[in-house]
Write a structure and sequence with these properties.
The chain is an alpha/beta fold. It has helices at 21-36, 89-103, 109-118, 127-132, 150-155; strands spanning 11-16, 40-45, 122-126, 144-148, 162-166. Helix 1 packs parallel to helix 3. The longest helix has 16 residues, at 21-36.
Length: 167
């Protein structure tokens, strides 16, 4: 049997396209873990994921309650989709999720961005999405390195051991 030599992960490009608490934090946790392991890390926020790096929206992320097949009620029972449509339910679920994250000492989005940047990670906004939503560099968190095109992102994908992850 042939043994293939494994190429270690050297570079990680994470794409975040959704603004739910769970999607944004998935990207942030993975990026922070990568920089802690010494992996070159770049975060690219596009479409609604831009909310995570937009100054006036980054503190107002919420948990998706409608259409979330993984959502569970206390005790483990599936969360009925229709329940998420009742006014106040999504806000309550989001509040409970944020409280639990706080208990676990999970940092807010802006602090996570600071940790990632301090570890050598880079944070970018998608030019197409920024143009669609009429967002400028001033609208984003100061640690956003630039507003780049998808072509610019692909140019960063060179070298063995590079992975692109879409969250």
């Amino acid at each position: 049997m042939d043994k293939q030599e494994k190429t270690p992960l050297k570079k990680l490009l994470l794409i975040c396209s959704k603004a739910t608490l769970e999607d944004v934090y998935a990207a942030l946790v993975m990026a922070n873990g990568a920089v802690m392991e010494g992996i070159e890390t770049k975060l690219f926020f596009t479409f609604f994921g831009l909310d995570a790096i937009t100054k006036d929206r980054m503190t107002r992320l919420h948990t998706a309650t409608v259409g979330n097949p993984g959502m569970r009620m206390p005790g483990g029972m599936p969360f009925p989709t229709w329940l998420g449509g009742i006014p106040g339910v999504e806000a309550g679920v989001t509040s409970a999720m944020k409280k639990r994250m706080e208990e676990l000492d999970i940092p807010p989005v802006d602090e996570f961005l600071e940790l990632i940047e301090a570890g050598g990670g880079e944070i970018y906004a998608c030019k197409l999405a920024a143009d669609m939503f009429k967002l400028k560099k001033d609208d984003f968190h100061p640690l956003v390195k630039g507003i780049i095109t998808v072509g610019d992102l692909y140019a960063m994908c060179d070298g063995d051991g590079t992975q692109i992850v879409f969250t």
